[in-house]
Design goal:
The structure holds two protein chains of two kinds. Chain A is mainly beta. Chain A is built from two helices and 24 strands. By secondary structure, chain B is of the alpha+beta class. A 13-stranded antiparallel β-sheet of chain B has the order 6-5-4-3-2-1-13-12-11-10-9-8-7. The chains are: A mainly beta, B alpha+beta. At the A-B interface, strand 1 and strand 2 of A face strand 2, strand 6 and helix 3 of B.
């Protein structure tokens, strides 16, 4: 509340004599259908939902100060878990002066170039409840500075407050379980643990330099702060998961190179954590055939290789171990983190007509363990303000070691009508 | 007999070289006119405007596109432009930032507001349709003399205005055209009409400007243009409103940070 007041004050105190008001938004009505019975009891086989996002932007007539307010809301009928939520994707004041930009409030910062997963992207927490594929992000409280000149774009981000990752619960699908178990385990958010003594109020720091040289775009980034990915630790006293968030140092490189209609992409990060250091990378290409065969649509073929060398997670945090009355928490093995040696194939179709019909389908495939994640998203405009969206999502039998073991029958089809205003 | 043959050969050679001279002078005249056209339209510094496209398809359907457009004149290189969609509402805020270049490929980025993601995109997709319209990316990019070879064809009265007819041959191999034929108003130095020929040499599209507006007492800007696709029968009408020149935009209004502010 104090922050809201501060932002409003900052904005209106600085305001010139006239303001420009801009707004847009959408409301979607959707239906999710799970064709297979879950191996977990008491789960939904379908549900209806409504989601809505609104973007309000107020700027001064010089267009160098902006107040942006973007709430997102998701409500479903028939589910008893965490799906229903509201999040401010944006609630920030932005000031720009020449090539300098300053933003304070809740906002989003996107890093990375690849399609299947983004290993460099770290600023915003994943919002699984809105989109299981992890592409939706929660708004992050931050202070952002950037200077853009001939030497590139220099971004500095201070993040004073950390946002936890939320998981499905109640009768919802995709709940976490112990490996090889059909028994879902609830996540106890009240006792989430942090390596940092300041818990979720640690001041996280991010920096990125990026520039382009002819057809090469390159970025180098650094992050020091709370890891966005928690380690779920089983608390056998309470039969619950305690989420443990470690301190993370991350160095990242992203690059993209255009050769005619071929794009080469690369992301590499080095992550340093108490539980173990590791490298993670995605590299690949996208080839686009404009107006393929004169059929009136562009065809994009995507191929990426996903790799990481994380082979063990070892939590030795004394206070955590004492509290949970466990000896230690160690997981070893090749498949402890997903995408350790995976291939991604994708197809993107986009029509050049009035309906902007588009389709993106992809499969991430682990040849060694025969595991895959398949998704297909299609959308089409109807008239000037309606869109029809459909999503098909499927994961193969999750490995015995995975916390998604109980989700192996959670393939789904989602249909959504969206009205844009 | 031999003498006669020699005479004819000599005559043929000299007339060939005459034609050659003529061709060279018409190339030079075509280039001169194009340079004058470019020069007469320089000095506007920057501009802001709203653009509306009305897409009319031969099957009777139609659709509307609204955009905010900012342009910046860049000395000794191509112009910079920032285009932001206003409608259709589902793509509202999606923006394109283009740095045109005189001597190399344009640089182009696309901004997706829901992800706050900036994507570098290939500028090789010149012939692709711009948002389903009959205008291609190539048609909307800034006119640079160095991107074409020119040939002066003649003069003709078009819509009661005396015009030069000049053919332009795109140098870029990714262009969707084999040639453009332009009707350039001699007195007002503005392009009234363009015929676009596809790679096979067949007439593809005709652009005609129906209405101009004179800004800052010097610069002619099209206000209503119509692009007819002669092969598909589709038509796109383009309307420009609120055109303002010298609004005080600077380089940093065409940066990637500016792209993120474009909403």
């Amino acid at each position: 509340m104090k922050i809201t007041f501060f932002l409003l004050c900052l904005f209106f105190c600085n305001l010139a004599n006239s303001i420009v008001f801009d707004s847009k938004g959408n409301i979607g009505l959707g239906y999710s259908y799970f064709p297979y019975d879950s191996i977990v009891e008491n789960t939904v086989s379908n549900y209806k939902f409504i989601d809505s996002s609104l973007d309000i932007k107020i700027s001064n007539d010089k267009q160098n100060q902006y107040l942006t307010i973007s709430p997102y809301l998701l409500r479903s009928s028939g589910t008893t878990g965490n799906i229903d939520h509201i999040d401010f994707r944006n609630f920030s004041y932005l000031y720009s002066y020449g090539n300098f930009q300053f933003e304070i409030g809740i906002s989003k910062v996107y890093w990375g170039v690849t399609e299947s997963i983004q290993v460099v992207d770290i600023v915003n927490q994943i919002d699984f409840l809105s989109n299981i594929d992890g592409s939706d992000k929660l708004g992050q409280p931050l202070i952002y500075f950037s200077i853009e000149n001939n030497y590139g774009n220099f971004e500095t981000i201070l993040m004073p407050y950390f946002r936890e990752r939320k998981f499905f619960s109640g009768n919802e699908r995709y709940k976490l379980s112990l490996p090889s178990s059909a028994q879902p385990i609830k996540v106890d958010y009240d006792v989430s643990q942090y390596q940092s003594k300041k818990k979720n109020r640690n001041l996280d720091f991010g920096f990125k330099w990026s520039n382009y040289y002819n057809d090469l775009d390159i970025g180098i980034s650094f992050f020091k702060g709370t890891n966005r990915d928690p380690i779920p630790i089983y608390n056998y006293l309470e039969n619950s998961f305690v989420m443990y968030y470690e301190d993370l140092y991350q160095f990242g490189i992203e690059a993209q190179y255009l050769v005619d209609s071929l794009t080469l992409k690369l992301e590499v990060v080095y992550k340093s954590l108490d539980s173990g250091d590791f490298y993670e990378s995605v590299m690949g290409l996208e080839k686009t055939y404009y107006d393929f065969n004169n059929w009136g649509f562009d065809l994009g073929l995507l191929f990426e290789y996903l790799w990481n060398d994380r082979t063990n997670v070892s939590v030795t945090n004394r206070s955590l171990i004492d509290q949970l009355k466990i000896k230690s928490h160690t997981i070893k093995g090749e498949s402890i983190s997903p995408y350790s040696n995976d291939l991604f194939f994708g197809i993107r179709l986009s029509s050049n007509d009035a309906d902007s019909t588009s389709l993106l389908t992809g499969i991430i495939f682990d040849p060694k363990y025969n595991e895959y994640t398949f998704s297909l998203e299609a959308s089409r405009r109807v008239g000037n303000s309606l869109t029809l969206n459909s999503t098909l999502y499927s994961i193969s039998n999750a490995s015995d070691k995975s916390h998604l073991y109980s989700s192996q029958n959670d393939d789904f089809l989602e249909l959504k009508v969206q009205w844009h205003f | 007999m031999k003498k006669v043959a020699l005479f004819y050969i000599l005559l043929l050679v000299s007339s060939l070289s005459l034609a050659e001279d003529n061709l060279d002078s018409n190339k030079k005249k075509g280039l001169d006119i194009s340079v004058r056209l470019k020069d007469s339209d320089s000095g506007w510094v920057d501009s802001t405007s709203n653009m509306q496209m009305l897409l009319k398809f031969s099957n009777g359907r139609s659709a509307k596109r609204d955009m905010k457009v900012k342009n910046l004149e860049v000395e000794s290189d191509g112009d910079k432009s920032l285009m932001t969609f206003v409608s259709p509402k589902d793509v509202s805020g999606t923006s394109f930032l283009t740095y045109s270049h005189v001597s190399k490929e344009d640089d182009q980025w696309m901004y997706l507001p829901s992800f706050k993601r900036i994507k570098r995109i290939s500028s090789k997709n010149k012939s692709g349709s711009f948002m389903g319209s009959e205008f291609s990316y190539e048609d909307l990019s800034s006119f640079e003399v160095s991107k074409y070879d020119f040939l002066y064809i003649g003069e003709e009265t078009y819509q009661k205005e005396k015009c030069y007819i000049v053919e332009s041959y795109p140098k870029n191999k990714f262009s969707g055209y084999s040639k453009l034929v332009s009707w350039i108003n001699i007195e007002k130095m503005r392009t009234e009409k363009v015929e676009y020929y596809d790679k096979d040499g067949a007439l593809l599209k005709i652009l005609s400007v129906k209405k101009f507006s004179k800004l800052n007492e010097k610069f002619w800007r099209p206000v209503v243009s119509i692009m007819e696709n002669k092969q598909s029968g589709n038509v796109t009408e383009m309307y420009w409103t609120n055109i303002k020149l010298k609004t005080g935009l600077v380089q940093s209004d065409f940066s990637k940070n500016a792209l993120k502010r474009s909403f």
